[in-house]
Design brief:
This protein is of the alpha/beta class. It has 2 domains: 236 residues, Spore Coat Polysaccharide Biosynthesis Protein SpsA, Chain A; 68 residues. It is built from 11 helices and 7 strands. Strand 2, helix 2 and strand 3 form a beta-alpha-beta unit. Helix 6 packs parallel to helix 9.
């Protein structure tokens, strides 16, 4: 326990035979329950965890009969933590990319009631650029920026970091059966948390690479999929938060801004086509109209973003 709060740690694991033992053996003593969710590993992960269960009574093993994805594995752990009556549930990877020594920093704000959800931030210092593989760093930066817009948590800098902690009281507000089950899980969860007005903060953590971990993430496949997910989540959040549960004029700014920008862009493309294909130069008035539509559209969208930032200011 920590400050009288029961702490659970969920460890989603898929083919983690190399490092899962090291992760389990270094979990701090204040943790009451360690829930390993074996997402149909094809290596020795299951057997290693079963051996560790004999040494550490805190360890519990959940086996998925199908490979459901990292998000689904985390949700399985969340549900068990809720059933056990824990107070705070943290998530750590099974590949030792998250330092167990930093777990107290992650769960601390939730235990103290300062936050409903804490995310690790690997980008807080310049060390991240040196330690994280460059293609993953760039992909993470792009998705983090996109997630700021989609989720409304403009202060969350590292959306893809899986080192997290959440209060079980907040978990009870979420529909755990309706959260994205794979690599888009952290993005989806942030959007759902914003809808219920959960307070989220970043905590600096150390990026750990080169310890024998093996990533199953293929950036060229993940980024397009999560980008499409984020577009859908953005519209979901705007509808749920600013139309159904409350009303805010930023809806009009986003709507009109998008219409103006698209109209200006399409007109500009059409005039460019006429110029290049037929040699017809657009009149000055048309060029001015295109510029005005695009500029007014962008201004309206930026105003909507500013309204969104102000509305969510208290959630950090």
């Amino acid at each position: 326990m920590l400050n009288g709060k029961k702490i659970a740690v969920v460890i989603p694991a898929h083919n983690e035979e190399k490092l899962i033992k090291k992760v389990l053996s270094t979990i701090p003593s204040f943790v009451d329950s360690i829930i390993v969710v074996n997402d149909l590993s094809k290596d020795r992960t299951k057997g290693i965890v079963e051996e560790e269960k004999k040494k550490d009574k805190r360890v519990k093993l959940v086996n998925h009969e199908k490979n459901l994805g990292v998000g689904a594995a985390i949700v399985s752990g969340y549900k068990i933590s809720l059933e056990q009556g824990d107070d705070v549930t943290a998530v750590m990877a099974g590949d030792f990319q998250m330092a167990p020594s930093e777990l107290q920093s992650i769960v601390g704000p939730v235990v103290k009631g300062e936050a409903d959800y804490v995310k690790g931030n690997r980008l807080f210092t310049g060390e991240a650029w040196k330690k994280i593989p460059k293609i993953r760093y760039i992909g993470n930066a792009f998705l983090s920026l996109s997630t700021k817009i989609a989720s409304g948590y403009w202060h969350v800098a590292d959306s893809q970091c899986g080192y997290t902690a959440i209060s079980n009281e907040t978990l009870n507000l979420l529909d755990l059966n309706n959260i994205y089950p794979r690599y888009g899980f952290p993005n989806d969860l942030l959007v759902k948390l914003n809808v219920v007005n959960a307070k989220v903060i970043d905590v600096p953590v150390t990026p750990i690479y080169g310890v024998g971990e093996r990533s199953g993430i293929k950036i060229w496949r993940v980024i397009p999929l999560i980008s499409l997910l984020l577009i859908r989540l953005f519209f979901f959040r705007i509808k749920e938060k600013y139309i159904i549960r409350d009303f805010h004029p930023l809806v009009f700014f986003y709507l009109f801004g998008t219409l103006l920008f698209l109209s200006g862009s399409l007109l500009g493309l059409y005039e460019t086509y006429l110029k290049m294909a037929r040699g017809i130069s657009p009149p000055a008035a048309t060029i001015t109209l295109v510029a005005m539509l695009i500029i007014l559209g962008l201004q309206s969208i930026f105003f909507a973003m500013w309204f969104d930032m102000e509305y969510n200011r208290e959630l950090k």
